[in-house]
Amino acid sequence: MKKAFLYSLLAVFTLVVAQDKDALKPDQLMFPHGFEKIIKQTPEEIVFNCHYFTYKTEVHYRSGVGAKNLEVKASDFSQLEIDIKSEVSIYVSGMFTLKLGDKTIRVRTPLQTVIPDGNYRRYIFNPTEEAAWDKKATLVEWAVHCAGYTENGPIMGFRRPQLLEEVNLIPGADMLTAQSAPQDVNAIRPLGKYLLAWQGKDCPGVTLRFYDYNLKEIANSAVELKPGASAPVAFEAPEMVIQTKAFIYGQGDGYPQLTCTQYRRRYVPEIFWRGQWIWSRHIMQGPDYSYVWFERNFDLPATPDYSVMGVMADDKSEIYVNGKKVGATYRYSRPDKFILTGLLEAGKNTITIRVYNLDSAAGLCVDLFNRYPSGKEEYMLTDKQWTCQETGNNGDKPDAIAQPVIELGNPTEVPPWAGYIKSVYVGPRGRFTLKKSVNGEFTAILDKAVILQFRNLLFERRTISGNVHKFLLPATLAKNADGTVTIRYPALRPTTEPSQVYLADEYWEVEGDKPLAQLPAVPNRPSRFHIAEFVDVGQRTRMKFRGRVYDPTFYKTQEY
């Protein structure tokens, strides 16, 4: 029997497997909620007719099961396993309630689909992968919630819930035998890296088989743990995998264990945030309507010749570099970037960021890119090397910013931001070495391109008095026979003072930041428009135009 059980088949929550029914606590048993009629209820299984209701046109799903009044250390818990069946299509998710002192932390796992054939299948809910999970807390309640059904009355069933100390992506691994049907393994991700091992003695042999969207086995993809094996087998899941099944070939003293060592994040742009969301507490734990200061002290081997930093904060931030304010951001959905060239120097440097959180989730994500005259490039990102300090409603900088930060996770995955964030590019730029340049066109040698093509480029017109105007203009690139490229864009108009045209794009730069064109000063052209003004305002307002006064009032009659 698997020694990692925290929660026995009889549903008692202790750190020891309890097989004696007399040891069960009635207020810790699995219970149903959101049902029309209970068909069966035992300590091991609950079956009922599902139920939902509508209020102000919104559908409220209530069906599911759960258990309360638990006392399980969050650090001793990894996942919940439970058998689920349904007659209709539903989605299920796990909700786990933690207590940390006076704080209540609720952690929800992603939705999973239940096949509507009325047969039990085992499901895994792993809340420890969610950023809100706090290992210092105590698990006091769990629940499985159902959603997505469109009628009342269909049968749903739940049985054999187990809380486990260790992660195992093979559901019900301890119950598999050679006589068992192959076990579905739904947690396998394409191109993810995994370890298959046997926990215990006398491995009887285990095979994982992978199937494509036609549910045909992918050729030469099976992973085998041979009989008697003692070392785990590392493998990468096939890119086309849709379904995975586990086969066991005998009864050994133990069980198979499958763990993930690295997920392959597919469909995420290569040019995206590299840093982690960080904060002073776990997600949804506040502090609300408060300031939190973050700081990173670091040494640079030389003064960068190009330095740029992207900042994303929930809710708003102010950024300081070596004591100088360089900018601010407002809302996480509107990140910004800041050119730090000339502000960072060889030796010790400090970046300080003040973040204000209104309520709900909060976090900070930073990407800093430095390029040195030697050509060396490096990133500095938000991670555990940052420190923080909460100051409540006091916005003044504290004497010390020394508390450790908590890594909340990758911006592409951590809710509630994952589906809504935007990116700013922070990184190396392709370089143009000018050969010939006029207003509207330049020819150059292209080196170290970051992107392969573009439709527009960002230009600046800088006047001798210091005025800067930016223009995002359509641009084309043509390759020449001598290996150079020619870039064409709409010519910029001159102003009343001499000015220069520069390339100011985030993906491209001109070597030495040389100007693309010199624009002479031109006098103002006389306007072709004439001034119109209202007269007699407050009495009978009329309009005066080119010396004549017009009455703009019209009267509606039967003729018109």
Major pleated sheet: 7 strands, antiparallel
CATH architecture title of the largest domain:
Sandwich
Q: What is the count of structural domains? A: 4
Which CATH class of the largest domain? Mainly Beta
The level of helicity is: under 10%
Helix/strand-derived category reads mainly beta
According to DSSP, the number of beta strands is 45
Describe this structure in words.
The protein has 560 residues and is mainly beta. The protein folds into 4 domains: 21-164, Galactose-binding domain-like (Jelly Rolls, Sandwich); 176-262, Jelly Rolls (Sandwich), CATH 2.60.120; 277-409, Galactose-binding domain-like (Jelly Rolls, Sandwich), CATH 2.60.120; 430-519, Immunoglobulin-like. The chain is built from no helices and 45 strands.
Task: Pick out its properties.
Jelly Rolls, mainly beta, seven-stranded antiparallel sheet, six-stranded antiparallel sheet, 560 residues, 45 strands, disordered N terminus
Explain the layout of strands and helices.
Layout (H helix, E strand, L loop, with lengths): L30 E3 L1 E7 L3 E6 L1 E4 L2 E4 L2 E4 L4 E2 L5 E8 L3 E11 L2 E6 L3 E3 L6 E5 L12 E10 L7 E10 L18 E2 L8 E9 L4 E6 L11 E3 L7 E4 L6 E6 L4 E10 L14 E3 L10 E11 L5 E9 L1 E6 L2 E7 L5 E4 L7 E11 L5 E9 L5 E5 L5 E6 L10 E2 L1 E4 L20 E9 L2 E7 L8 E8 L4 E7 L1 E4 L5 E4 L10 E5 L4 E3 L6 E3 L12 E4 L6 E4 L2 E3 L10
Parallel strand pairs: 34-41
Antiparallel strand pairs: 1-6, 2-3, 3-14, 4-5, 6-13, 7-13, 8-12, 8-14, 9-10, 9-11, 9-13, 15-20, 16-19, 16-21, 17-18, 17-20, 22-33, 23-28, 23-31, 24-27, 24-29, 25-26, 25-28, 29-30, 31-32, 34-35, 35-39, 36-37, 36-40, 38-39, 40-42, 43-44, 44-45
